[in-house]
Amino acid sequence: MTAPDATSSAVASAPAPSWRDSLAVYLQPRVLIVLFLGFSSGLPLALSGSTLLVWMAEAGVDLGTIGLFALVGTPYTLKFLWAPLVDALHVPFFTHAFGRRRGWLVFSQLLLIGAILLLALTDPARSPLLVALGALLVATMSSTQDIVVDAFRVESLPESEQAAGMAAYVAAYRIGMLVSTAGALFIVTGFEAVVPRGAAWMWGYVVMAAMVLIGTVTALAATEPAQSARAEAVTRDDGALTRVFHAALGAFSEFLQRKEAWTALAFVVLFKFTDAFSGNMTVPFVIDIGFTRNDYAVIVKGVGIIATLAGGFAGGFVARRYSLATSLWIGGIVQAMSNLSFSWLALVGVNEWALTLAITSDNFCNAIGTVIFVAYLSALCQNPLHTATQYALLTALAAVGRTYLSSGAGYLAKETGWPMFFAISVLAAIPSLMLLAYLQKRGHFEALGPVRV
Asked: Which of 121, 151, 222, 264 falls between 20 and 30 A from 442, CA-CA?
């Protein structure tokens, strides 16, 4: 499905929406469905990550072992490998009862609940291997849910609601993460008043497993996307292996047949590079100039979350009001320029108001860029026969810049100092903006048509 205002002609002929119209669209039933699914997607992430690490640290697990647990996040990077199964295979009973996308949604969420409960029953002090297995299962089921939710969102929202849906999804995803980090820790603290610490952690994870039911109820209340239903009708007579093969191969071949496909892929890799390049060094920078980790945590989990939510909704407004190309220009520039707030902080020094302003600016601007970038990725996934596979591939490709290209940021910061480092990180946006100009000149964005089977 094309992103909002994907063609310049559509923008020219339609009046720009007002703030009132933009806010009203968030109350549309389909957007609310996507919002609750976003919460369900964000909730499990920390349960196999930062929250689990706190549990392990309190249990006295060796630091070396704790460090290795970063590897349990691998399924989020490799989820494109089994995305064709989600696109092509039927889940016994679930697909027949609920449909192609909703069946997989309910199925993956029930497995996710089971995986979280299994993790809750483990003991980090006595059996770290079982904890690793449980965490890996949680990450696998969580990433599978993400695959289905992404496909459902792209296929279910009409063009007029795509921007609002993406903003609502990103905001709710962040809220889900907050619930499974700060919220989970508060719940565990509450349980510690009546049961031993180990049991408190177990019941805290049980509560988190129960909260996944919010997504399950949402999936049951939703309706199967019409585009997915038509895609299902097209492949009804094909065998399972044939459908998997076509989903996997079609996701590649259909995309690569497009004009400027390789340039578009390079743009996907580089668009969030400036954000990742500076973001990887934010925590070391804040600690290095004299703030405590508590100062950083309070501001990031408080003001930072609010700024992220506000930026997400602002990004949705921008994506709905302007063409996709113009929105990408706005998102690309503001997320790059926000890095200068940390250069200013490095010159000011230890000042809580300055840190608050820098974190607010960075989170707000990066959220705008994220929502608009999601709009672009969604616009690239035009065929519901392999929406899940194509979107998973694109997000995995986008992670290249975040994970690998930015890995040398620490060496640059060491050589240049903090003020200059963050100023240089602004320049990391130039390659993506050059590609954006090239794609716009070549008519890439006007060529992004509606979803078709």
From this structure: 151
User: 181 with 385: CB under 8 angstroms?
Assistant: no
- Closest by Cα among 79, 45, 40, 37 to 397: 79
Provide the terminal-to-terminal Cα distance of the chain, rounded to the nearest Å: 11
Average pLDDT of the chain to the nearest whole number: 84
**Angstrom distances, CA of residue 419 to CA of 25, 180, 310, 341:** 41, 34, 27, 10
203 burial type by CB count under 10 A (0-12 exposed, 13-18 middle, 19+ buried) = middle
Task: Give pLDDT, residue 13.
Answer: 41
How many other C-beta atoms can be found within 10 angstroms of the C-beta atom of residue 9? 10
Biggest CA pair distance of the chain: 67
Rounded Cα–Cα distance for residues 442 and 449 (Å): 15
Rounded CA gap, 93 and 103, in Å?
8
- Rg value, the chain, Cα: 22
Q: Tens digit of pLDDT for each residue in 139-179?
A: 999 999 999 999 998 888 887 777 778 888 888 998 898 88
Query: Was domain 8-441 assigned CATH 1.10.1040.10?
Result: no
Q: 115, 68 in Cβ contact below 8 A? A: no
Whole-model pTM over 0.85? no
Helix, strand, coil percentages, rounded to 5, for the chain:
80, 0, 20
What CA–CA distances, in Å, run from 277 to 34, 90, 154, 167, 429?
Answer: 30, 41, 29, 24, 10
The single-letter code of the amino acid at 59 is A
Q: Which secondary-structure segment (H or E) carries 134?
A: helix 128-156
Distance CA 209, CA 202 (A): 11
C-alpha of 360 from chain center:
19
Gap between the Cα atoms of 272 and 34, Å rounded = 23
Q: What is the pLDDT confidence band of residue 113, given thresholds at 50, 70 and 90?
A: very high
Helix residue spans in 157-304 (DSSP H) = 159-178, 184-191, 197-211, 213-221, 226-234, 240-256, 261-270, 273-279, 282-288, 293-299
Under DSSP, the state recorded for 48 is: G
In the predicted model, what is the mean pLDDT of residues 317-342?
91
- What are the residues whose beta carbons fall under 8 Å from the beta carbon of 286, sequence distance 6 or more? 295, 296, 355
What pLDDT, on the 0 to 100 scale, is given for residue 49? 83
d(CA 408, CA 280): 10
Please state the domain extents for the chain.
Answer: 8-441
Which amino acid is located at 196 in the chain?
P
